[in-house]
Design brief:
The chain has 13 helices and 16 strands. It is α/β, with parallel strands linked by helices. The strands form 3 sheets. Strands 10-9-8-7-13-6-14-16-15 form a 9-stranded mixed β-sheet. A 5-stranded mixed β-sheet has the order 2-1-3-4-5. A two-stranded antiparallel sheet has the order 11-12.
Length: 362
């Protein structure tokens, strides 16, 4: 199963909105085939593994990180391929919450005499697909907030300058995150201040869909994200409905979503619903303090990546990762769970999941 998990990770960034899945076929104590879901629309892990076998898989055991599918999508059901191959036992890690599967794959295998063992290395298998699990159950993108700050909590100097807070290794890690997530979201303030391209610079990587939250449509029509919109999908989320203001952006290839207003800003919950309909299953939020606060307050954030550099900026007016009004007391804070701390070059990366109970109680 650990080998299947390693294989599954090779599909990172290419399989969405499908899950990452790996499979290993074992016969008489020997691996005779293995595979993984390589990209959306391609063969699933089980079929790739079966296609690679070095001898007949009849009577063999297949280890799969996720419950085999039993419905027709881009590919036919994997349970049918398993049964046709004569596999005697199926060992899985994660259950599939997709209503089209959700135990039906196991049921069909058992009905046809296949032995089924579940929840092997379940925690590690589940860790492969938090995005898929969230999206398939809610229809909404999984949102990960990312920011880089100094040890005194600043994301920019008092002059507004922010390049570079972290070192090269941390910046390279961010490129991997941009490859991993389907969309990348920033606010108009970030575009006005830095004019970024918001692209993934890893050769051969999938480019994330760029989503710019611009309540009043303030960004210039010659901004980098606009000028390259015909090459890389770009969505402008705004409350602006004037067709004359919108037209220049659409002519350059941007998709403009006119959305309701919430507390003076784009209604982020409405935006998530629209993005979910477009099969954008995950978003890396690279916003400034204002957008980050709005995202937290709206209840759309599931994960936080905090890069912390070993330096101090100081400055009462220097920017911080989460601004806005903030909470009234420590007891109202947004707690983070499942913390993980990693050294990335000279910087520290702290990862945490936003406690969803906080959102339910809002």
């Amino acid at each position: 199963m650990r080998r299947a998990i390693e294989l599954a990770k090779k599909g990172e960034g290419f399989t969405s909105p499908n899950p990452m899945v790996g499979a290993v076929i074992v016969k008489d104590g020997r691996i005779i085939g293995e595979g993984y879901h390589e990209r959306y629309g391609g063969l699933h892990a089980e079929r790739n593994a079966l296609a690679s076998v070095t001898e007949s898989p009849k009577g063999a055991v297949i280890y799969v990180t996720l419950e085999p599918c039993c419905h027709y999508g881009k590919q036919p059901p994997c349970v049918d391929a398993i049964l046709e191959a004569g596999i005697a036992r199926v060992v899985t890690g994660s259950d599939d919450p997709n209503p089209l599967v959700a135990g039906k794959g196991f049921k069909k295998l058992i009905e046809h005499g296949v032995e089924v063992t579940t929840h092997v290395e379940k925690e590690a298998c589940d860790a492969l697909n938090p995005v898929f699990f969230h999206y398939i159950q809610t229809g909404l993108p999984y949102v990960a907030m990312k920011y880089a700050m100094t040890m005194d909590g600043k994301i920019a100097a008092y002059t507004g300058q922010s390049k570079w807070i972290t070192g090269e290794e941390a910046r390279a890690f961010v490129q991997k995150l941009r490859h991993r997530y389907t969309g990348i979201m920033a606010g108009a303030g970030t575009v006005l201040a830095d004019d970024p391209r918001l692209t993934c610079r890893i050769p051969g990587a999938r480019q994330p869909v760029r989503i710019i939250c611009d309540t009043r449509l303030r960004i210039p029509s010659d901004a980098n994200v606009v000028e390259t919109a015909k090459e890389i999908p770009t969505i402008l989320a705004t409350c602006q409905a004037d067709p004359d203001r919108i037209r220049p952006f659409e002519e350059k290839g941007c998709q403009v979503l006119t959305l309701p207003e919430e507390d003076g800003h784009v209604d982020l919950r409405a935006l998530m619903r629209e993005l979910g309909k477009r099969q954008i299953d995950s978003i890396l939020l690279e916003g400034g303090g204002t957008l980050n606060w709005s995202a937290l307050k709206s209840g759309i954030v599931q994960k936080v990546y905090c890069f912390t550099a070993p330096k101090l900026f100081g400055g009462a007016d220097a920017g911080t990762p989460v601004e806005g009004r903030g909470v009234a007391s420590p007891g109202e804070a947004f707690p983070l769970t499942h913390l993980k701390v990693t050294q990335v070059g000279e910087d520290l990366l702290i990862e945490g999941e936003v406690d969803t109970d906080v959102y339910r109680n809002c």
